[in-house]
């Protein structure tokens, strides 16, 4: 990768303002070396993927504390995809028969049943949902709030949130889309490599 970017003149590389990537530290070092004036931006996909992974680890760890025949275990074990949807997108009026719980309920009711049984799951879910909502609604202040509101969160979610304060929060909201466009356009507009 370094060899490829070295084909562009340093003055051209200095004009790149932002680079979007995941939180792989190896890439950060390359960006700092190749694009000295660029701001590193973490895209929302990787933020949500990391938080979702932390929530799922918490869910499984919590589930294993319960007897396999208990309602808490069944709440956590089955219908896990519902926990990953935006809460406001869960069905609130249409009921379905949950064969694991042997009752009719809505998607939102199903999720709420589990949140009512475990404080750590509930707090961790709130953090995941809160940041997902802030990203969706371009709410920078909300993101900051959830990064530091971490009482009752699972260990996994706390560790995940610790990685974000080093990121530019402003680029994790609406600015992200503008930044991605800028990066793609900037690279496309770069002059041909020096050795061409």
Walk me through this protein's architecture.
With 196 residues, the chain is mainly α. The protein has two domains: 2-42 and 174-189, no CATH class; 45-163. The chain is 54% helix and 7% strand. It has ten helices and four strands. The chain has a two-stranded parallel sheet. α3 links the parallel β1 (18-21) and β2 (39-42). α4 runs antiparallel to α9 and α7 (119-137) packs antiparallel against α8. It is elongated. The model is unreliable at 169-196 (pLDDT under 50).
Order of helices and strands: HHEHEHHEEHHHHH
How many beta strands in the DSSP annotation?
4
Rg, alpha carbons? 21 Å
Strand content: 5-15%
| N-C termini distance | 17 Å
Helix content: 40-55%
Count of separate DSSP helical elements = 10
Strands ordered across the widest β-sheet: 1-2
The class by helix and strand makeup works out as mainly alpha
What number is the mean pLDDT? 80
What number of structural domains do the residues give?
Answer: 2
Query: What would the principal axes of the Cα set say about the shape?
Result: elongated
Unreliable residue stretches = 169-196
The major sheet is characterized as: 2 strands, parallel
Protein name: Transposase
Pfam family, one: DDE_Tnp_ISL3
Domain Transposase IS204/IS1001/IS1096/IS1165 DDE: 3-142
Explain the layout of strands and helices.
Layout: H1 2-5, H2 10-14, E1 18-21, H3 25-34, E2 39-42, H4 44-63, H5 71-77, E3 96-98, E4 103-105, H6 107-115, H7 119-137, H8 140-148, H9 155-162, H10 175-189
Parallel strand pairs: 1-2
Antiparallel strand pairs: 3-4
């Amino acid at each position: 990768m370094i060899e490829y970017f070295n084909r562009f003149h340093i003055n051209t590389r200095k004009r790149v303002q932002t680079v979007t990537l995941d939180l792989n530290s190896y890439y950060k070092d390359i960006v700092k070396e190749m694009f000295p004036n660029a701001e590193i931006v973490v895209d929302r996909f990787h933020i949500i993927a990391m938080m979702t992974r932390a929530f799922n680890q918490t869910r499984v760890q919590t589930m294993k504390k319960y007897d396999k025949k208990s309602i808490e275990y069944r709440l956590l074990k089955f219908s896990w995809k519902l926990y990953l949807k935006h809460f406001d997108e869960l069905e609130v009026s249409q009921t379905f028969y949950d064969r694991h719980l042997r009752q009719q309920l809505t998607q939102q009711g199903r999720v709420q049943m589990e949140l009512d049984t475990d404080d750590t799951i509930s707090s961790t879910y709130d953090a995941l949902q809160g940041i997902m909502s802030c990203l969706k609604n371009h709410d920078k202040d909300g993101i900051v709030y959830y990064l530091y509101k971490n009482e009752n969160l699972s260990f996994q979610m706390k560790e995940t949130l610790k990685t974000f304060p080093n990121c530019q929060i402003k680029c994790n909201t609406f600015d992200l889309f503008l930044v991605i466009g800028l990066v793609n356009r900037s690279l496309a507009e770069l002059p041909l490599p020096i050795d061409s």
